[in-house]
Design brief:
Helix content: 40-55%
Mean pLDDT: 85
Strand content: 5-15%
Strand order of the largest sheet: 1-3-2-4-5-6-7
Structural class: alpha/beta
CATH class: Alpha Beta
Radius of gyration: 17 Å
CATH topology: Rossmann fold
């Protein structure tokens, strides 16, 4: 299990931009190195949830991580004020909790970091409704644990109140502050079908209601399995990230 790690840039770590990478459950060093390679020239903070159900502990995890992030900027006054976020599968669900804690912790002690965020990449993740979340968690548990997962999947509905709270009180922080998005997904995602499309729809609806024309939303569709888009479409995947950086870092 990777937990929280920091990887300095190979170029100029004192002044290079920062990526915050939210890994997926079951991430290992070899797999996450492939995602790190997509962000050459970036310092990288890696945050990996230990299991699916820790989504309910994200407030604690994100608060601890945000303290590390605050320390990074306080100890490095010359650090670049450019941040990108990349959320993978269940790790994408931690992005909204991360943003919420940045804004609210100790009356906004960390909110100075929010304007540094240039863009958010979501890959195969984030559900907006509790029903989609429960369906996804059940599928993930069955896939990860096998036969025993068929038994313990039945306890997932016990967490419904926590999931509903997350969808109502944490998810809305994604739609604040006019963040730009690159949404990478597959229409045949077996864990969270339709979740990414719903995210794009909600982003567009939010901008339409507020008459906002400034947000950049890039949709990248693949037909590979859940969280296998980089593995199956490496060149196109990396190019989509590079293009997203080019159009948002201005």
């Amino acid at each position: 299990m990777l937990g929280n790690k920091f990887y300095p840039s190979d170029n100029n770590p004192e002044t290079d931009p920062l990526l915050i990478l939210f890994g997926f459950v079951g991430s290992n060093e070899r797999v996450m190195n492939k995602y790190r390679e997509c962000w050459k020239g970036f310092n990288i903070f890696l945050f990996t949830p230990p299991c699916d159900m820790t989504i309910y502990l994200m407030r604690v995890g994100c608060r601890k991580f945000n303290k590390e992030l605050n320390k990074y900027f306080k100890n490095n006054p010359n650090a670049s004020k450019i941040i990108y976020i990349h959320g993978l599968s269940i790790g994408a669900s931690f992005v909204s909790g991360f943003l919420k804690q940045l804004e609210l912790y100790k009356n906004g002690k960390f909110c100075y970091i929010l304007p540094y965020i240039k863009g958010i990449v979501m890959d195969s993740g984030l559900v907006l409704t509790h029903n989609d979340a429960i369906t996804g968690f059940k599928s993930a548990i069955r896939a990860q644990i096998g036969t025993f997962g068929n038994v313990i999947q039945h306890v997932v509905p016990m967490f419904k109140p926590f999931i509903k709270y997350f969808c109502k009180h944490d998810v809305p922080y994604l739609f604040k502050n006019n963040y730009h998005f690159l949404v990478i997904y597959s229409p045949c995602d077996q864990y969270f079908p339709g979740a990414s499309e719903n995210l794009i729809t909600r982003l567009n609806d939010t901008d339409r209601i507020s008459n906002n024309n400034d947000r950049i939303i890039v949709e990248k569709k693949f037909y590979s399995k859940h969280i296998e888009h980089l593995k199956s479409n490496k060149t196109e995947y990396i190019d989509s990230i590079i293009n997203f950086i080019n159009i948002t870092n201005k």
